Structure formats: C-alpha cells, structure tokens
TrEMBL record:
Gene3D superfamilies: Quinoprotein alcohol dehydrogenase-like superfamily (2.140.10.10)
Pyrrolo-quinoline quinone repeat domain location: 15-162, 272-328
Organism: Methylobacterium cerastii
Protein's name in the database: Methanol dehydrogenase [cytochrome c] subunit 1
Family annotation (SMART domains): PQQ
Family that this chain belongs to: Belongs to the bacterial PQQ dehydrogenase family.
PANTHER family: QUINOPROTEIN ALCOHOL DEHYDROGENASE (CYTOCHROME C), QUINOPROTEIN GLUCOSE DEHYDROGENASE
Length: 379
C-alpha cells in the first residue's frame, strides 16, 4: 500500500481518497514517471524510512495538467507495512525537471528551544527544506542559491490556500500562453541547484556543507508521444552560468537548516559535483570538476589546502583509519551530467540536455581518466 487515505498526511491533513490519480489526466499516471532512484535514510526510533520521488513525465508540462502527485515528493514510510506516514510534494506539476530524489539528512536539533527530530533535504529546485521527520511538519523552505528565480518563495502561511506550495513566477514557467515557447533565464537549470552530489552535516557546527550548481537554462518544450522503451523527454535545453553573478557555475556553501540561511559561500568556476565530507577536526573536504581536492575551515570556509588530481572529481571524499593513522581518499574521473560532454566526446551544445554546451570549457581544465588519490593525515 502506498498511502492510507485517512492516516497518511500531507502538511498535517489526511491525503484523502484517490489523492494521486485524480491529479493526473486520464491514465497519464501509468506512464508519468515519479520513480525513485535513491537515496534512503532510516530512523530506527521512529521506524520510518525516508526518500524522494523523481520528476513526472513528459518534460512538456502541457501534456500532463494537474499536480501530478506524488512525483517530486518526500516520503516517510513504515518499512514493515509499506504505508506512508506522511508525504510532502515540493514541486507540484513540475515544469523544469527538478527531480526530488536527493538525499534526506536526519539530524536532531533544537527548534524554538525544543529538541526536534529533523529531516533536511536540498532539492534540485533550489530550495533547502527542513521538516519534522516524525510528523511531516514543514519548518523551513528557503533558497540555498540566491539566483533561484522560478518561484518567489514557498508559502509558509498555514492559513493560506497555497500553504507549502512554491509561488511560481509566470515569467519562468515553461507553459507560456498555451504555446511551446522557449522560456529563457530559468534558474536553476534542470540539473538543479544540487543534484546527486551529497551534502554533509557537522554536529559540532550544526551546519550542512552543500556542493551546488550555479547554473541557469533556456527551456523549450515540444509534444512527444509515449512509446515503451523509447526516450520520453519532450524538451530542449541549453545551460549557462547564472548571469550577473561571480561568473562561475558552482558554489560550495555552509547552510543553517534551522534558520534557512547561507552562513558562507565559496564560489567555484564549475559546478561542485563531488560529495562533501565534514570532520571532527573542523575541516571540510570537497572536490571540483577541474580536479582539485580542497580542504576548508568548517566555520569560515577559508581554504586550508588543495591538491590537483589527474581528472575532474565527481566522487565522494572518504576518510578511514588504519593502524592508528587517519587517511583521506578521493576518486577522480570526470563524468556525470556536467562532465558528459568531455567523458563521451560530445560536441553538440544541445546534447546531454544542454549540459555539453554549458560545460564546454571544462576540457581546458581537466582530462579523462580515473585514479584513487589517498592522503595520510599527520598525527
């Protein structure tokens, strides 16, 4: 069972009968995407597992009117019965491919002076969400990159009819006057303000360390027919650095999940596509697409060390101990959505759903190849 109409809640209220299928036209839900590709978190005390669902299909939103529930949703589910305790849909009727599948980070922090079980999620849509993971109450929904513009904010007024929903700005909608129009200047791009690259949390600072994409796009939908086994996209994209900014395509930030604020931000020339590692020594590690492993101060973001590996880094920094000595390791080897052009030898700027053109300059800064680089930390 996916949901219980009376017991599964959405922003504190029962989801109700047929809460998902009635938000799709006809039988569109059968081919409507919303799949889960990871990642899963588990709270043994609450006996709940948490994960997100992906984008609805097709990418042409005109072909699937409605909220398209429960795509783009955070799920809290009992692993024994399969019943969802609560759900929260972040991007109803997604128009931009802002999959909601990024990791759910579970922490226990004080909110209003009270110890609270929290879930924090940095979504592709550019908003950082903090929810009470026991109840599904929405506590924070704020932009973790200031250039995010497809919505002005998430409505946090519990008395409002649009409570919990993003307030979409029509200028950046991909549905324009009933026509397939090339909507320009949408931030973030479809690869999101953060994609699969995982964030880290330090219980010493109570801050999250988040690798981000500082990228915008032009998005033109077109009509597409569903054929099993064939691509079902329905949009053409182009990507580029966020305008009127630092000129780069990434930032590495420290985020306060209770306040919903950026504490510090380090600009990067390309998207930060590696995972972050926060350590008890107040040092945070991450990698860059040019191939640098960087170590920064967890409180200030000041760069402490960097090392150029042979290829761009999209892997996750790891640490381990052996015979009483601590090591830090990183796999380098450019690829992923941002590195697909270089990795696959693609030159058409619209290939890779626009990423090839957006990251064309990457070939001047790094090379193909894979290597594990390990560092021994001094005692």
């Amino acid at each position: 069972m996916l949901v219980d109409p009376e017991k599964t809640t959405y922003l504190g209220k029962p989801v109700g009968k047929d809460s998902s299928t009635k938000t799709w036209e006809g039988d569109q839900w059968k081919t409507g995407g919303g799949c889960t590709w990871g990642w899963f978190s588990y709270d043994p005390k609450l006996d709940l597992m948490y994960y997100g669902s992906g984008n609805p299909s097709t990418w042409n939103p005109k072909q699937r009117p409605g909220d398209n529930r429960w795509s783009m949703t955070v799920w809290a589910r009992n692993p024994d019965t399969g019943v969802a305790k609560w759900v929260y849909q972040m991007t109803p009727h997604d128009e931009w491919d802002y999959d909601g599948i990024n990791e759910m980070i579970l922490t226990d922090q004080k909110v209003g002076g009270k110890d609270t079980p929290l879930l924090t999620h940095f979504d592709r849509n550019g908003f950082g969400y903090t929810l009470n993971r026991a109840t599904g109450e929405l506590l924070v929904a704020e932009k973790f990159d200031p250039v995010v513009n497809w919505a002005s904010k998430v409505d946090m007024d519990k008395g409002s009819k649009t409570y919990g929903r993003p307030l979409v700005l029509s200028k950046y909608s991909t549905e324009q006057n009933g026509e397939d129009t090339n909507s320009k200047g949408i931030c973030p791009a479809a690869l999101g303000t953060k994609d699969q690259q995982p964030a880290a949390f330090s219980p010493k600072t109570n801050l999250f360390y988040v690798p981000t994409n500082h990228v915008c796009m032009d998005y033109e939908p077109f009509r597409v027919t569903y054929t099993p086994g064939q691509p079902y996209v329905g949009a053409t994209l182009s990507m580029y650095p966020a305008p009127n900014s630092h000129g780069g395509m990434g930032n590495f930030i420290a985020w306060d999940g209770v306040e919903g604020k950026i504490k510090w931000s380090n600009p990067e020339q390309f998207s930060v596509w590696s995972g972050a590692l926060a350590t008890a020594g107040d040092v945070v590690f991450y990698g860059t697409l040019e191939g640098y492993l960087k170590a920064v101060d967890s409180k200030t973001g000041k760069e402490l060390y960097k090392f150029k590996t042979p290829s761009g880094i999209i892997g996750n920094v790891m640490t381990y101990q052996h015979k009483g000595k601590q090591y830090v390791g990183i796999l380098s080897g450019v690829g992923g959505w941002a590195g697909i052009g270089l990795a696959a030898g693609l030159t058409d700027p619209n290939a890779g759903l626009g990423a090839v053109g957006g990251y064309a300059a990457l070939s001047s800064y790094t090379n193909l190849g894979g290597q594990l680089t390990v560092f021994a930390l001094p005692n």
